[in-house]
Amino acid sequence: MRFIHTGDWHIGKTVAPQRYGADFARKRRRELLETAESIVRFANENQVDLLLCAGDLFHSSYVHIDELKSLNTILSQLKKAKFVVTPGNHDPLIWDSNYERIQWCDQVLVAPAGRSTFSFPELDCTIHTYGWSEAELPKPILEDWQPKKQSRYDILLLHGDVLTSPTRYLPLSPAWLRSLDMDYIALGHIHQPVVLEERIRYCGSPEPLNIGETGEHGFWLCDLTTEGFRAGKIEIAQRRCIKKQMEISPQDAFWQLRSAIRAMAEQEGISNLYDIELRGQHGAEHPLDVEGLRQELLSDGVLCQLKDATLPDYDLQRLCAENENNLLGGFIRSFGDSEDKKRSEIEQLALKMGIEVLLQEKRKQQ
User: Fold this and answer.
1) Model confidence pLDDT, tens digit, residues 85-104
2) What angle do helix axes 22-45 and 65-75 make, rounded to 10 degrees?
3) Backbone phi and psi for residue 365, each to the nearest 5 degrees, phi listed first
4) SS3 for 75?
5) Helix, strand, coil in percent for the chain, rounding step 5
6) Sign for the pseudo-dihedral over CA of 52, 41, 26, 242
7) Start-end ranges of CATH 3.60.21.10 in the chain?
8) 2-235: which CATH architecture?
9) Which of 9, 79, 144, 221 gives a 20 to 30 Å CA spacing to 207?
């Protein structure tokens, strides 16, 4: 039997239009549906029997009705596979659930609230599920559940948190999962793929859902046979999230930094999302306009978030002379000679961070 283990599609999620522009916000929302279509196409081309979605198919109850209809059309294109989904914390079965807003095609099977099973006699397979009916489940309410094996192949499809403690999102213990007589445990909730054991896995989300979600995004293609189990990671995301560090100096002009980041993005892929940490030093009299830089890069087509980890390049001799009789001057003198090259990197960092704090206090008093 061949199945796809996926989850956390978060249909309807978008980026903040006020931060990244309305055009990209609309485009990114549409891309989530396009990726869903790519998964269905892959299932059709690779003789997949079941498409298992481990929760958070939707981001919230505020999904446009047109998006629901579009997703239904996409899933109706499955030629062989059934789409089995269990609700998670973002799309629980509550009164305004997206699962109740339209009539889903025959290919879609939505798990009810609580514990349930789906039987597929033609595959000699049973899917065991737990469907959420509220947005938070802080207690380990499944620890007494030992689903009974009913077929040659039994799979547990579940949305919960093994990796965080404490958690408000259905705590799951590794020991409990290992104790279950299941042929595979398909988990959702964590947006990166995680292999807890060979047959206990998180699928991750098929698309990165914020700029911080680096690494591969896709789904597991799994085969269960009488000879054993095999799984392969299929990367399918349209965009990647990439972390970068960039060193700058006080001599770097705004346009130089903008050009350097743009060139890096063009080399790595302009469609990707970038999480960039700026390091080094900037001119003490001219602090970095990080938000202005981000907006300029956005106009260049570079989508990024910028973290300013730079330190100002102070004129220590001048500062010490101007503050000879106060705490700031004494603090600078405590580090000895004003030549930076005689200090360790940690001492330089401590000095400049201390100066920044004392200057802020001095400004408050003025």
Assistant:
1) 999 999 999 988 999 999 99
2) 20
3) -80, -15
4) helix
5) 30, 25, 40
6) positive
7) 2-235
8) 4-Layer Sandwich (3.60)
9) 79
